[in-house]
């Protein structure tokens, strides 16, 4: 049995996909999400048919008590609270898998769940709620899970559901690589445009290239390796982003597929007036830079702009406006 703790967009999509493949799944989340599933959960693909499943649902953490595998999909700021709650619920031999953004959540869960096997995971794709009870995967990629014998039940369920998954021994490098890619979440949220529309415009891409280049310099100084998650190595991605629109459009199609209506999860959070994960994306780069005695001004400015948007500020910045506000956007970080 699988329990999804914190069933939002990612949790509902993964849980619905596993349930459609025959797994026993319980979604644990808020009434505003679960009340929409009375008639079933629809999950659709970027390039495939929609499937309907009927997983069990609960608003009570105790619903995870009998689970063999617990998938944690809460927002990063809620991880400590989730871990403390699960500590009093999950069986000692249960496997806990973090399917969250950021690089610190597994450590937080392990500290809250001593003696349990807590594994890192990485969800590469974007998921959007298209309408009540319908969640759509809007970009391509392969699910990655920490290499461990405890991951076997989850891997088997993924394969039964035709959900691509691979086991990795370098999950921290995978998570940091995903974080570097996710630096676009803030830019997309501040643009107010679909991902594909935003990324088609060079000024936005130049801001993203500057943020990524800054992160790459900081990570190199920290001796933190990065996994290769796309055909383009992380170190070359800023150069790809800075290419003219026509050239970028041709090369980008070979790198990652994006649904034309997909938006970032940070856009979803701002739209719903929820706190964003900016501290666990751009904020993580800024914090690491400071620990190394360095600066990350582009990422720091994006943190500032998202904070302003959370407080009701602008969410329709043009690429030119964003580029003008990003200090040192065309220079390497110090």
What are its keywords?
Rossmann fold; globular; eight-stranded mixed beta sheet; alpha/beta; N-(1-d-carboxylethyl)-l-norvaline Dehydrogenase, domain 2; 334 residues
Give a topology summary.
Layout: E1 2-5, H1 9-20, E2 25-28, H2 31-34, E3 41-44, E4 51-53, E5 56-58, E6 69-72, H3 79-87, E7 95-98, H4 105-112, E8 117-122, E9 127-131, E10 134-137, E11 143-146, H5 152-160, E12 165-168, H6 171-182, H7 184-191, H8 195-199, H9 202-221, H10 237-241, H11 245-252, H12 265-271, H13 282-291, H14 297-310, H15 319-325
Parallel strand pairs: 1-2, 1-6, 2-5, 3-10, 6-7, 7-8, 11-12
Antiparallel strand pairs: 3-4, 8-11, 9-10
Helix pairs in contact: 3-4, 7-12, 7-14, 9-13, 9-15, 13-14
CATH-level-4 superfamily name of the largest domain: NAD(P)-binding Rossmann-like Domain
Helix content: 40-55%
**Whole-angstrom Rg:** 19 Å
Number of helices: 15
Task: Tell how many strands the DSSP assignment holds.
Answer: 12
Chain oligomer state = single chain
């Amino acid at each position: 049995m699988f329990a999804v703790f914190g069933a939002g967009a990612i949790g509902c999509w993964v849980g619905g996909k596993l349930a459609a493949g025959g797994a026993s799944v319980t979604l644990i989340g808020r009434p505003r999400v679960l009340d929409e599933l009375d008639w079933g959960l629809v999950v659709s693909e970027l390039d495939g048919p929609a499937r309907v499943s009927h997983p069990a649902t609960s608003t009570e953490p105790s619903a995870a008590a009998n689970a063999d595998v617990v998938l944690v999909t809460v927002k990063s700021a809620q991880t400590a609270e989730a871990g403390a709650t699960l500590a009093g619920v999950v069986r000692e031999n249960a496997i806990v898998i973090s399917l969250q953004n950021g690089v610190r959540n597994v450590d937080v869960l392990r500290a809250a769940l001593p003696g349990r096997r807590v594994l890192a995971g990485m969800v590469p794709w974007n998921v959007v709620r298209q309408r009540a009870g319908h969640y759509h995967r809007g970009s391509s990629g392969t699910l990655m899970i920490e290499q461990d014998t405890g991951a076997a039940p989850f891997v088997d369920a993924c394969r039964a559901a035709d959900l691509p998954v691979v086991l990795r021994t370098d999950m921290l490098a995978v998570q940091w690589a995903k974080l570097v890619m996710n630096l676009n979440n803030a830019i997309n949220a501040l643009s107010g445009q679909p991902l594909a529309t935003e990324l088609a415009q060079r000024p936005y891409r130049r801001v993203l290239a500057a943020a990524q280049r800054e992160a790459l310099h900081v990570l190199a100084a920290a001796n933190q390796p990065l996994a290769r998650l796309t055909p383009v190595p992380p170190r070359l991605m800023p150069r790809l982003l800075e290419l003219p629109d026509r050239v970028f459009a041709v090369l980008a199609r070979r790198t990652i597929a994006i649904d034309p209506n997909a938006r970032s999860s940070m856009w979803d959070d701002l739209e719903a007036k929820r706190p964003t994960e900016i501290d666990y994306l751009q904020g993580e780069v800024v914090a690491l830079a400071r620990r190394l005695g360095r600066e990350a001004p582009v990422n720091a400015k994006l943190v500032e702009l998202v904070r302003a948007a959370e407080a009701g500020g602008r969410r329709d910045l043009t690429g030119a406006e964003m580029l003008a506000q990003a200090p040192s956007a065309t220079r390497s970080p110090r």
